[in-house]
Amino acid sequence: MKPHSSSGRIPSHKGYRLYVDQLLNVTENNHLGLITSVQQLFDSRVSEVEAVMRKTAAVLSEMTNYVSVVLGPAMSNTKLKQLQIIPLSTTQAVAILVTDSGHVENRTFDIPHNMSLSDLEKFVNILNEQLADSPIKQWEALMSNEIERLLRQHVDHYEKIHQDLSAAFKPKVNEQIFYNGMLNLLAQPEFKDVEKIRQMLEWLEDKKEVYSLLNAMNSKDLPSKLVRRIVLNCSMTLA
Q1: Cα 74–87–112 angle (5° rounding)?
Q2: What is the mean pLDDT of the segment spanning 209-229?
Q3: Short-list 57, 28, 32, 52, CA closest to 42
Q4: What does the alpha-carbon distance between residue 75 and residue 173 come to, in Å, rounded to a whole number?
Q5: Which of 45, 50, 150, 167 sees the fewest Cβ atoms within 10 Å?
Q6: CA nearest 110: which of 92, 87, 89, 85?
């Protein structure tokens, strides 16, 4: 139909109706398996949030035939659920940090030579009692005053281990980014050019840049024209 003499032609209401009906039929016939996968994903009991993110990326990539980029919850925004320190020897131990989102981090570090295993146990108990359910990003601030007093009173030589743990579990800017469907790039006409796909893969490997883009999606100022072009050619979902 042509709304007025100077306009171009657009589909009529019946034309739109036909398009929508055909689109829905194709979706129902071809994507029942994917719909089932999505339902199973959210019906299943998954203990770790990373597993949900990986499965989400896989389902999105399969549904869209694009690259999917899923950003999980930042560790800095989660709360401490439990901290465990397991001695591996008299000189080394592994620290395991569990957050309320189900995220698990572990780091190996050296036990200070002048710190006993009993003091190490006291250190962990005090932190769990005082920091449970507190945001990870507030760890440093919360360590002052009462917690500092308790550590000074009950634990000898705690300063070094506290510094090591704070550095080891410092939230990263580019944490928890999950990819799937990289090979789908090869199916896109624009990426028949080897140089273009090389640039794309280099960009995707820069997790800091990808993280910055995903956080900028809600603002008016997006990065360069290259990134805008990438957004048009990738399925990017903020979870």
Answers
A1: 90
A2: 57
A3: 52
A4: 10
A5: 45
A6: 92
Residue-wise burial string across 12-43, b where 16 or more C-beta atoms lie within 10 A, e elsewhere: eeeeeeeeeeeeeeeeeeeeeeeeeeeeeeee
Instruction: Look at the alpha carbons of 145, 150, 153, 157 in this order and tell me if their dihedral is positive or negative.
Output: negative
Residues contacting residue 205 through CB under 8 Å, at least 6 positions apart:
none
Residue in 189, 176, 95, 177 with CA at minimum distance from that of residue 139: 95
pLDDT digits (tens, 9 = 90+) for 56-85: 888 888 877 888 888 776 666 778 888 898
Instruction: Give the number of other CB atoms < 10 A from CB of residue 58.
Output: 18
- What DSSP character marks residue 235? E
Among 69, 82, 2, 80, which residue's Cα sits nearest to residue 215? 69
Name the average pLDDT for the chain: 76
Rounded mean pLDDT of 108-134? 87
Distance CA 191, CA 157 (A): 58
Name the more confident of 108 and 211.
Answer: 108
What is the rounded distance in angstroms from the CA atom of residue 203 to the CA atom of residue 200?
5
Q: Return the pLDDT at 156.
A: 85
